[in-house]
UniProtKB/TrEMBL annotation:
Organism phylogeny: Bacteria, Bacillati, Bacillota, Bacilli, Bacillales
Protein name: Oxidoreductase molybdopterin-binding domain-containing protein
Superkingdom, taxonomy of origin: Bacteria
Alphabetized InterPro entries for the sequence: OxRdtase_Mopterin-bd_sf (IPR036374)
Length: 173
């Protein structure tokens, strides 16, 4: 199977930022992530009605952890949550225990790069939200914070311009 390069919705090749709170930040592409994960599969096998080519999140993580420990001799604390950040300001925090069936969509059914949800789309079937899916993922944080919720949380980050903040302050709200 030919593996495509990762592109954002504007057709520009895009990196995905992967951060572990103890290790730091790395830049990956969807293609390199899929190659590290190994076997790709039709996402429909885990998420009925979805289409495209995906890889298993846990398989990627185990391979990444092995690579990291081999190349840096770094021993990391076990993760408790996964934080996903999308290019459209959508954010999700998912307990690690809910990621057993998690899959990362990285290509269309024909093997071409994702055209509307890229560079990657993260699916979490059978979690507290039934099937959480986060499209346009550009940043992934592997968290070791124990204090976070046992349920997935998600939504759009509230953003205001400087002018909007000044108006809110002037109105006393």
């Amino acid at each position: 199977m030919m593996v495509p390069k990762a592109y954002n919705n504007a057709g520009k090749e895009t990196d995905i930022e992967i951060e572990h709170e103890q290790f730091g930040v790395e830049q990956w592409t969807a293609v390199v992530m899929s190659e590290l994960a190994g076997e790709a599969f039709a996402i429909e096998s885990r998420v009925p009605g979805a289409s495209g080519i995906a890889f298993d999140w846990h398989q990627w993580f185990e391979e990444w952890l092995f690579l990291l420990s081999y190349t840096t001799k770094c021993k990391l604390s076990p993760p408790t949550h996964l934080k996903l950040y999308a290019s459209d300001s959508f954010e999700a925090i998912i307990p690690w225990s809910q990621l057993q069936e998690a899959a990362v969509l990285f290509a269309e059914t024909d093997g071409s790069p994702l055209t509307t949800a890229g560079p990657i789309r993260f699916y979490v079937p059978n979690g507290t939200s039934k099937c959480l899916n986060v499209k346009n993922v550009v940043r992934i944080v592997i968290s070791t914070e124990e204090a976070l919720s046992d349920e997935a949380t998600f939504g759009f980050k509230q953003q205001w311009s400087a002018d909007e903040l000044r108006q809110k302050k002037a109105l006393g709200s």
